[in-house]
User: Fold these one by one.
Assistant:
Number 1:
Amino acid sequence: MYLRHGTFSYLPELTEDEVAAQIRYALGNGWPVSIEYTDDPHPRNVYWELWGLPMFDLAEPDAVLREILDCRAAFPQYYVRVLAYDARLGRQTTALSFLVQRPSREPGFRLARTEAHDRVQRYAVQPYATQAPPGARYEAP
Amino acid sequence: MTGGFAMRPAEPAVEEVLDAAALVDLNADETSLRARAVLAEFDRDMVGLAGVKRRLAEIAALLVVRRARARFGLSDRKPSLHMSFTGGPGTGKTTVALRMAEMLHALGYLRTQRVVVVTRDDLVGQFIGHTAPKTKEAIARAAGGVLFIDEAYYLHRPENERDYGQEAVEILLQEMESERGSLAVIFAGYADRMEAFLSSNPGLSSRVAHHIHFDDYTHDELVRIGELMLARDDYRFDPDARPAFRSYVELRTAMPRFANARSIRNALERCRLRQATRLAAAPGPVSRADLITLTEADVRGSSVFARGS
């Protein structure tokens, strides 16, 4: 299955120039940009691993793009996303978040049903990928 | 649905190649017109610097011709935009760098006309492993524009072979070489020490394409610079003050620590102080003419004259 995660997830994949343009937009708004990666696609897994540090005081996206490429080279089968954080008082939240890499094979999610009291059913989604230990979840094709 | 990388490679821009028989008017091109306007403004605003102006015009011409060649599909190697500016203090190296960025931006070789001025402190770290991130951060801030390294020779400390400056130079070189690199690096400093710095690293001097030397200003030029500075701030010399200022310039240039236009600026600053003191102490009202005029006494009040006599 194709994971829909973050902004632009229903659009065709962005090109490098389009990613650069989105980052430029974020930087133009004064949002520092950071890069995160994970191999656990569960929707409740909100805190991914941070690649390097958030990048402050930039005006052009070149350095961010370079970090994205470095991160992709280091974790070729991970999900990688770009985050832009709006630190303004009253917002103080992620303003933009989109994927810049996904594994080549995404096995999807299992719906787990649990019997609770009185015929009540409880549901959970479990990524098939997380049945393997971290680091061994997505094999190179 | 199939997965895959979430970043498509950029599609190559398709630009139509002109017919071999076509003609291109270099002067009608909008970008070259803009570059020309920047050059003309530079010509008008800067006094002297004939050599620099000529080099700037040459570089602009080269880049304009290169654009025209690209339209015919002729060999299109990325030009090296890295430069070294050498010259005494106050000869306008930083100002020219600003203009250079403006021109390169107008010609489409830089994405922005931002100039990031750094010195050794901004590039070199204090312990092992500190230098690379600092240098990379400076490069990231200057991306798409100009990285102006003032007093660049301090990056090289021959007396200390374990100095981290060398590491900063290596990273800069890497960036200057890389195809993805989008910034122009300008090394600036005094001529003699710059020579030693550039020859200390053979890779460096070969990657700096344009060496531009800034001559010291002559007395006439300095006087004109002073008058331009005054005019910009709505001041002027009265007829007696002008020869006084000229003799001030002659005395001052012979003194140590003379920094060309910067010294002139400071001298004028002090003239204005003396004028203000004089006007504030004067009884009675002042006119508009009084407020904009610097008299001979304001100029002659300088300690340079006291020392000269």
Note: The mean pLDDT of chain B is 86.
Number 2:
Amino acid sequence: MQVFLTQVLNGLQLSMLMYLLAAGLTLIFGLMNILNLAHGAFFTLGAYCGVVVAGSTGSFWLALLVGPLLPLLLGVVLQSMVLQPLAERGRSTHLDLALLTFGLLFATAGAVEWVFGSAFLSIPTPVALSGHVNLLGISYPVYRLFIIGVGLAVAVGLTFVFDRTLLGATLRAGVDNRAMVAALGVNINALFAVVFGLGAALAGLAGVIAAPLTSVYSQMGITIVVETFVVVVVGGLGNLRGSFYASLIVGMTNAMSQAYLPEVEMFAIYALLIGVMIVRPQGLFRNVERVA
Amino acid sequence: MSALEARNLHKRFGGLEVIANLNLTVPPGQRRAVIGPNGAGKTTFINLVTGWLSPTSGNVFVDGHAVAGRPEKVTRSGIARSFQRNMLLEDLTVVENLRVACQAFHPCRRVFWRSKQAFATVIEKAERAAERMHLTDILAVPAKHLSYGQKRQLEVALALCSEPKILLMDEPAAGTSPQERARLIDLINGLPRDLTILLVEHDMDVVFATCDLITVLSYGKVLATGTRREIQDDPTVMEAYLGHRHAGD
Amino acid sequence: MSNEVTMARTSTAREGITLASQVRRATLVLATAAMLGALALPWLSASYATTLAIEIMIAGIFASGINLLLGGTGLVSLGQGMFLGLGGYGVGIGSTVLGLPLWLSVPMTLVVVAVLAAGIGAVCTRTRGVEFLLITLAFSQLFFGAAIKLRLTNGSDGMSGIPRPDLTFLGLNGDNPVVFYYYVLIVTILVAAAMWRIVESPFGSILAAIRESERRAAAMGYAVSSYKVGAFIIAAVTCAVAGILQSQYTYFINPDSMSWQLSGEGVLMVIIGGTTSIVGPLVGAAVFVLAKQGLSILTTEYMMFFGIFFMLVVAFFRNGVVEALKSALWSKP
């Protein structure tokens, strides 16, 4: 029973990490119809920035704050100066933009390897969050609870923004009818750049948060991208709430199979994706009101 | 036996009933127009008849046989459709567009080891189809380089390649110039008399010049069916188009 | 429409036809020269060029399979690497585990791949566009994971000792790189010829129609899904052929041969070379392999330059090198 509870919490922690990545990806797709394969690059960059900041200042919290900034900037620049102009020129279809981001993913992995080498790096767990705590009869690492907390906080925050604020309403409108929103005087390009940047920042945040737990290496973005896409597709492309539930499903599946069925661990989630595609290609949560 | 019959057709999207108990019968060889204000369900009706949507309940019959399922099956039963927005094979030439259309029911379509040029019957069918539609001069031109009017012609030509008994035309006059419209009228009137035609149109000139009978749809139901005179004199039709206050003026 | 406009259009069409036949003639000349060059290569140059040419041809076959889906049918698959891997592992398992001779294990592998592709294709073609891309990727990752985990495939160490064809009945030694070169050359020519026939056939014309407008093809009366699955099967078998050759070339196969990076490289080759011709994928493979070799000599940071190269090609040479050359050579001054 104790082992099971530990696994559930592990699954939850994994889910929240995936949610940070999936939320950004699904927003970008829902709003702009772009399959951003470079999302992994933002994850990697956030982690490496975090490593640099934590290494030079010794502060995890500063790393947490500064880490997502480079991905944010890169995301805004990428969208406004590369993807948007290409899309407007009409020369590039959505497929081309997806392939372009694919190239960026590899370029980034190569660039960090060039600068940092192929060694595995890490950020030390901050003192305030290290150690274990007694919870429901088991001893569980505080840091993992922190991750769960951050994920839930972001989920609540995003839902609030999209359901209750003007920005959220504008974004939802932009998804439904981009031309109309532009005609109403909203600077739709600025909006998309901001959303892209926000999505990238979330991925960068995930990178910093994951660093104390896992290794930081040049290919970390590449391996995580495919898993994130599984979450996004299962949840329904563009469906923010769906991504949350899908993150839970995929995270739990991962944790449970790691613990109880290690032989199938590598492909459990892909089998899940294929199952979903066969039964409901539009994602499991289509009936949930599309937030973005 | 009617060529086309829609019986108790319903289509609901969530809470919205777009087609509500629609009944329509078109005898063979008739030229029927389907008109109605925006939102009346005209395009939904066409999509239901041609298999792009499935009805919530009700049936469609062609020559007495029930028609159901996907568009490819519907085309097999003898219904063809031209689309409101051109759906041509843009990068292919006019003759190739027609050839592919004419190939659809030919046994050679499953052949993957011999050149398509070897099947002369299909090519001849395509060339004859081009002749009927006055497209012979532009056979080698890629479809994307045609003028809008020529594209509309090709659009209709493609629909006719399946040798349908019933042709559904979805707003063929949309976006055409007056000259093109005149040519369209000639084209429709020049089609074989045994071909049943259902024409969804907003342009009343085209409707009056080509159709024997007019059906008016409103809120997913048939409001009235009649000749030009009967429809023009019908107060309920007026009301549907202009709103409650003008009825009876 | 006035007579002048019609005449102008007809004469432009006529000019277009003459230009097209000029291009065709030039292409024929180039193709013959390339063929003669390919036939004579081992005699003309060092063995390094021969091994490079073998790699180009294997990559070209892989890219041709991808292009049947991409350029031929409009389906972008990021998972064709799984079929390359299945081809290689098929002969690997057949030869080293089951002890079968090649003339048995090769056809058996291709049949198994075709059957798997039918099943996978039936599932994948239920989606389109972005979802199709992702589900092909997912299937590919599934097989990748299986290759790493299964004891049958020797895990991430891979399988070695994969035999080359036994040509002793011709008095030839398959281990000789020159002999292997001609073997691969013959297979490449056969694959290219087969691709050409398929594209020119009625079946190929239906795939083109599906690419141009799937809805129109359905409205014409075609059972679109069946044709998509058919294309998927043929593409899978083609990629498996590349995989078989690859494993024979290196006597070895491992899970890296089915990574999604490999699938991405294949798509890049197709984009570089151009999707509209049979020879495009081969040209793209050549450019890619040569660039990769050149880059690895110049720098150790292959991945970064590969990524940048990929982005530039997608942004500026979307129609591929072949098309860019054509328009550069034949554009009116």
Note: Chain B is about 35% helix and 25% strand.
